[in-house]
Every structure is written in C-alpha cells, then in structure tokens.
Design a protein that fits this description.
It is built from four helices and twelve strands, in the order H-E-E-E-E-E-H-E-H-E-E-E-E-E-E-H. By secondary structure, the protein is an alpha+beta fold. A seven-stranded antiparallel beta sheet has the order 3-2-6-9-10-5-4. Strands 1-11-12 form a three-stranded antiparallel beta sheet, with no helix packed on it. It is globular. It starts with 12 loop residues before the first helix and ends in a 7-residue tail after the last helix. The N terminus and C terminus are likely disordered.
Length: 198
C-alpha cells in the first residue's frame, strides 16, 4: 500500500478515462471556493467538497497541484465555500473556465459579500457558505486535500442544490421546510466564531 505522494500511476489513457467515467456515476454537490491574496479575490468551481468534523468544525476541498487557487490558499491560509443552487449552472461553468479574467473581473459582476471571519468573497445567491481558516494540507497524488477550520457559516436560501454527475450538471430535490434547520441555530453558531480577519 502506498500513501500520499508515494503513489505512482502506470494507467493508460484509456484506463484513466474509464476510471473518470466510473467515478462520474457518483453525484456530488457543486461549490465555488474563493480566497484572497493581497486583497485580490480568486474563485474556482469545485465538486470535491465535504464536511469532516463537528468538533472542531472542519470541511475539506481537494484542488489540483497546479491550481492557482491552491497557491492562493497556501499563501493566505483562508478560504470560503459557497454551495451552489440548481439555478446557478452559469456560475458553476463560469468559475470552472480557466480563460476567464483574473482578479475582481473574474467574478463577472456576481453579487457577493465578504465572509464575516476572513473577508473572502461569498456568492450571495448560494444556498450556504462556510468561511474557513486553513487547518491542514495533505498532498495526495495530483491533488492536495485542504482541510479548513470553519470560523463562520450560515444558510442563505432554500432551493434545489446543483449536482454534478456523468460530466453534467443536474438538479437535486429542494429540501422541505422541515429539513432545513432553524436559521437561529446557524446564526448563533456563527456569532460564536472567530471574526478576526487574518
């Protein structure tokens, strides 16, 4: 068994393609990850996102070794995650496009607000956000798994989530009112978070 960057791959391009196709059968949510370096914002679409721990509050995102976002987060040690709604397919495609402009222009006029703890951009029309400080980084093959300590978070609106499967965006079911926790709980938790910007 190999661990971390010790793993080597002898897969052919056909085997890689088959693996990607098989993995694509697993439907994931879609998020936009943002960061700030010298007050310059950066954002990228990610579907490798998960919660990790409730005590402490931790989430993870996985980014390619060559990603500009990876470099930005390693430098700033802060990032925010916006969970996208089904009506945000355009935003998902936009932030996945490597040819879009850089800096503030890369946000294409999106309505945003600053994450309460880090100041990282949050897309205002998302379903929820997690405002994080970098907790750990784990190199793993051609990606790095970044674990973030959640300093603030909240739900923003109730709508169907955007999903990604088989190489395409899809739509999840809209949660019922009973399935959405009381915003007061979320707001109270957010008020307890560290709010000092790094």
């Amino acid at each position: 068994m190999t661990h971390g960057n010790e793993a080597t791959s002898a897969l052919s391009s056909a085997e890689r393609s088959a693996f990607r196709s098989a993995a694509g059968r697993f439907a994931t949510g879609v998020v936009v990850v943002t960061s700030l370096t010298d007050d310059v914002p950066l954002g990228v679409t990610v579907n490798a996102f998960s919660t990790v721990s409730l005590d402490p509050l931790l989430v993870l995102v996985s980014l390619q070794n060559t990603s500009r976002m990876l470099t930005a987060i390693e430098q700033s040690e802060i990032f925010a995650v916006t969970v996208l709604a089904a009506d945000q397919k355009y935003q998902a495609g936009w932030f996945a496009n490597p040819r879009r402009p850089t800096g503030l222009a890369s946000f294409g006029g999106e309505t945003m607000f600053a994450g309460p703890a880090t100041g990282c951009p949050v897309l205002a029309e998302g379903l929820a956000f997690f405002d994080c400080r970098l907790h750990a980084a784990h190199p793993s093959g051609d990606h790095v798994i970044l674990v973030g300590e959640v300093l603030s978070f909240d739900q923003m609106r109730r709508a169907a989530p955007l999903l990604f499967a088989n190489g395409e965006f899809g739509v999840g079911d809209q949660p019922s009112a009973d399935a959405v926790s009381d915003r007061g709980v979320s707001t109270a938790a957010r008020a307890l978070s560290v709010t000092t910007r790094r």
